[in-house]
Amino acid sequence: MKVLVAIFSATDTWTIPARHVDALRRRFPGVTFAHAEDDETLRREAADADVAFSSLVRGDVLAGAPRLAWIHSSAAGVGSLVSPELKRRGVVLTNSRGVHADFIAEHVVAVTLALFRKLHLAVRRQLEGRWAQAELNAAPPPRLLRGATAGVVGLGAIGAAVARAMAGLGADVLAIRRRPGLPMPPGVTRAGGPDELANLLAGSDVVVLAAPLTGETRGLIGRHELALMKADAVLVNVSRGKLVREDELADALTRGVIAGAALDVFEHEPLDPGSPLWRLPNTLITPHTSGFRPDYWDVVTDLFALNLQRYQRGEPLVNVVDPEAGY
After folding, report:
1. DSSP secondary structure letter of residue 221
2. 326 in a domain, yes or no?
3. What are the CA-CA distances from residue 235 to residues 104, 129, 226 (Å)?
4. Phi and psi of 150, rounded to 5°?
5. Which of 152, 105, 112, 163 is nearest to 293 (CA)?
6. If we measure between CA atoms, which residue out of 248, 23, 154, 19 comes closest to residue 261?
7. Based on the structure, what is the number of domains in the chain?
8. CB 77 within 8 A of CB 94
9. Which among 135, 179, 218, 269 is annotated as catalytic?
10. Which of 97, 143, 177, 288 is catalytic?
11. What is the edge-to-edge ordering of all strands in the sheet holding 283-285?
């Protein structure tokens, strides 16, 4: 069996360290592991691979890999991997959902509190050497998370973890999910279907986007949806940048349609230095770091190893993705 490991990026953060590939070789001495660190090697080594541990095997690569039967993504999102070629051949796709959940949930709590307490503004005034007591206490005043309404869009592993964390601090958690009839995760007061999004937006003090990127969620939040939100509400996006129409969000933040936004993901990454989002005083930006826990590669590699053992034994894999749903 040949396994292609191809997880590389322009930044070291999202590139698997070579020592983790070496650890897999020691753990599975009967398996051949090909480590690709560039596009040319990826395409060459995919040609005779049976399995891929990668988030980069898109349709054009898959077309040149006739033996490939299973792809495991190192990320939770798999939008770029769900190609017509994958569906046609019935290639099994699994992902790393759940690995990031608690880490991202704490990030959501942190940035929500920062926006509620105007800590982002306090840091700006600190750098200017300004005593901004009156400004920080001006309307909308600092708020408690306890007693606030948190609207969570998407109740997968990340959304469920966000709901638990928010409820644990006393927030009332509402949610939107594709299948509202499923059992309610702990901490969620009420969950509705996608047709109830407008009600969730209108009733929430903080709206958290935790849904996967699919044909149904692309561009989900724009001018119309932002106008439904409370003027003192904030938006937090930790899912995929393309859920939000960025230009329309920047305009809404500039005009004070909503009080603020915390964004960890963007339509195009890295975020263009010319984007107005960088300079808006009511916006908190993090560079797609909410899910990168210190032991990330250890945990992701262990999850793949678990699935590889199951694959060798002919057992059902964990975290199988429905290619039609996109998650």
Report:
1. B
2. no
3. 15, 28, 9
4. -105, 125
5. 105
6. 248
7. 2
8. no
9. 269
10. 288
11. 188-192, 172-176, 149-153, 206-209, 234-237, 260-263, 283-285
* Beta strands 51-54 and 32-35, pairing class: unpaired
Q: What is the pLDDT of residues 155-184, one digit of tens each?
A: 999 999 999 999 999 999 999 999 999 999
Can 288 be counted among the known catalytic residues? yes
Q: Which domain holds residue 199?
A: 101-285
3-state secondary structure of 152: strand
Is there a single domain that holds both residue 133 and residue 226? yes
pLDDT tens-digit readout, 78-105: 988 999 999 999 999 999 999 999 999 9
The catalytically annotated residue of 240, 245, 246, 248 is 240
Asked if 240 is an active-site residue, the reply is yes
Query: Residue written as tokens 């322009």?
Result: 10
Cβ contacts of 297 within 8 Å, gap of 6 or more: 16, 17, 20
Which pLDDT belongs to residue 12? Answer: 87
Computed over every residue of the chain, the mean pLDDT equals 97
Report the CATH number at residue 76: 3.40.50.720
Residue 130 bears catalytic tag: no
